[in-house]
Specification:
2 copies of one chain form a homodimer. Chain A is an alpha+beta fold. Helix content of chain A is about 35%, strand content about 25%. Chain A folds into 2 domains: about 1-140, Jelly Rolls (Sandwich), CATH 2.60.120.10; about 140-220, Winged helix-like DNA-binding domain superfamily/Winged helix DNA-binding domain (Arc Repressor Mutant, subunit A, Orthogonal Bundle). The longest helix of chain A is centred in the middle third of the chain and has 27 residues, at about 115-140. The termini of chain A are far apart. The relative contact order of chain A is 0.13. Chains A and B meet through strand 6 and helix 2 of A and strand 6 and helix 2 of B. The structure holds a DNA duplex.
Chain lengths: ~220, ~220
DNA sequence: CGACTCCTTGACAGCGTTCAACAGTAGTGG
DNA sequence: CCACTACTGTTGAACGCTGTCAAGGAGTCG
């Protein structure tokens, strides 16, 4: 389930905003796809930085309805904004490597007046809020096709506009992120495929090639 | 539109978390219903504390669709979390009195190591995030009746469970907050009225009496 | 009074859900 | 290797919730 392998020893750069905190600050953990990093309402003891893989954060209702708040990809930092307890559950979508750091260590730095660290934390929280507000706009105002387009543009941007977009998440994850059903997600993707805006690579339906990003963006909701 | 009347001189207590910042910190402004406190994308120069009245914050799409992110009532503090620029528009719903303070003054305090102020700011931001995440859950997972029930319970709680709930906002505001149409909001309220869970006082449809809060809560979505 | 806004209600349509069937893939074990 | 199962994703058909359109009542303001 969870394997701590000690402080990181790789030579890769830390691709994030808290890198200044230094290597010794973090230690590495691995999670199998489907296992939880933490659960809603648990005490928030650590912050997480994704090194490889992907994580979904969600809230769930008693009858099983699930709302995914965000997908977290390599480089993303997680749970900085959670205070005493986690307000949602975090689950590895695929096998995932993360660096974790104790929140206490981080706050100790902040208390000592570490200005850059404080700025980084503030930036992270601001970005989280911004994402949530855009998500609210999407859920409240957009129709199904617009939602799927917005999702594709978001992931494409966050993956750095790759030739082939490899989605770690299932259609169900996408549906629960966009507040719709898997069937409607699938139908919307089929519409975009029929319009030659995208295609699936090979027989896998999780590898998407965007043929016309500007045409895709035209289908998006404009602010 | 906007009338500055100088530092506040009333004897009322400051009903909020930033009260320790002191009276001299704030000055009073009045806004007519419908006028804007600030617009999306404007530089964020002040923070706002509502003394009387109500404010809606929203984002708007180019075709007119509007998503209200939150309603702010007396005592609420606004725009602490906005960094360089405001990420949404804030508009007085009715005639509203606010205290405003320069962000620079607040940040100067934080920079000087004012721990209580920093904690208060962190609490405010956490609460804002929590509200946004619950809002996402509502918009993504709930049907129209559940949304209206959630709205009523939220306002009832924030007004301190009054005998008569006087809504400052229109049905359109409620609809744009819940991601539905005015007609459906109206129909949902009629359902609750027909079930004797609530009634309208007098001929005004903005004054609501909750007859059975536990029955109302049963209709709510449970986590 | 007329013009306007706000709200409710009815009729109807349509978007998205629900239900169902089916195909493709992956994993497991004989 | 194949059989079997579980899971994932797509597509079709029908239903129903919610949006759209329309009408009308009630309150407000000049």
């Amino acid at each position: 389930m969870l394997v701590r392998v000690g402080a990181n020893k790789t030579a890769e750069p830390v691709p994030s905003q808290l890198s200044e905190l230094g290597r010794a600050f973090w230690s590495e953990c691995k999670y199998r796809g489907g296992s939880k990093l933490f659960k809603e309402a648990e005490p928030a003891s650590h912050v997480y930085q994704i090194r490889e893989g992907a994580v979904r954060t969600y809230k769930q209702l008693s009858d099983g309805r699930r709302q995914i708040g965000a997908f977290h990809l390599a480089g993303d930092i997680l749970a900085v904004e959670n205070c005493e307890t986690h307000r949602f559950t975090a689950e590895a979508i695929v096998d995932t490597t993360v660096w974790i750091a104790k929140r206490r260590s981080l706050f100790a730095r902040l208390a000592k007046g570490d200005i850059p660290a404080a700025n980084n934390v503030r930036d992270l929280v601001t970005r989280t809020l911004e994402h949530a507000e855009n998500h609210i706009l999407l859920l409240g105002c957009q129709n199904s096709l617009e939602k799927v387009v917005a999702f594709l543009l978001e992931i494409d941007r966050r993956l750095g506009h790759p030739d082939v977009m490899v989605l770690p998440m299932t259609r169900r994850d996408i549906a629960d992120y966009l507040g719709m059903t898997v069937e409607t997600v699938s139908r919307s993707l089929s519409v975009l495929r029929d319009e030659r805006i995208l295609s699936f690579r090979g027989t896998k339906q999780r590898e998407i090639v965007l043929h016309d990003r500007s045409k895709l963006a035209e289908r998006a909701t404009s602010v």
